[in-house]
Amino acid sequence: MSSIPPSEAVEEMCVLAKRLGITDQTRNEAKSILSRALENKKLKKSNVGELARASLYLACRLNNEPVALGSLGAMDPEGKKKVFRTYQRLKRELEVSLAPVDVCGILYKFCRILGIPDDVRMKAESILERSGNDGRSPQTKAQAAILLASSMCGCIISPQKLHEVTGSNITVVRCAAKSMADELKMDPYEEFSRSLCESLSLGLEEITAGLLKDVRLIYPGVLKRPVNTLAGGIVYYAARISGMPLSMSRIAEAAGANESSVRKAYCDVRRVLEPEGEESAGTKV
User: Fold this and answer.
1) Residues with Cβ < 8 Å from 268, sequence gap 6 or more?
2) C-beta separation of 196 from 251 below 8 A
3) pLDDT tens, 135-150?
4) Among the four residues 34, 66, 133, 244, which has the most C-beta atoms within 10 Å?
């Protein structure tokens, strides 16, 4: 939406709103805001495309359906600045007052669009309640909490999917999630490994926690694997060195992971923890 006729801007704005899952009520309010803006002497000379995006952003804020500026088609930093400046002028000239942003409302909306299960959503809400105010935007905090909760519960969300839904910078969200985990002294890998042991009634929680610490110290690169995959590999390794007859397929199913991926994670863990030539965990997987 650049400098285009108002009717075309409205049409494109409605298409964008529909793609983002914005309700009809908010969409209609955005149309009304744009109409008032085009009648305002100080605003009518503004770029119509930017006015349309800013109107939609303002309508979303008014109806507690917040969206990221990046998802409104302003992906580059300069584009975001222009839309945000237009939004601020719009709010000032039309004398619109806004209530504080409801972070839990943002989290609920993202979870609904992403199809996040209720148990993961509740875990994310708990993380949000415990986290402090670090100056990050409500959208970033909500997404960081979702990333943490989903990794702990084995409901893995791809960065690409999160980006498509929110339009956010996934690197920023990952940094926020790491800061949040550090602040709350949370370890997604350890927590998922513990819950996996509990679900299988293995009684190996302390052993897997110790193995995970050793792996992290010796080869941090293994932590690039998805949480449920690495947890499955470590739990399987712990079961084997403890003499427990447990199939790889059973662990993979309990972890919600692909069996071959868990097998590769197990092989990585074994290579890291066992000196070359030793076969303390058995000869063949």
Assistant:
1) 219, 222, 225, 233
2) yes
3) 777 888 888 898 888 8
4) 34
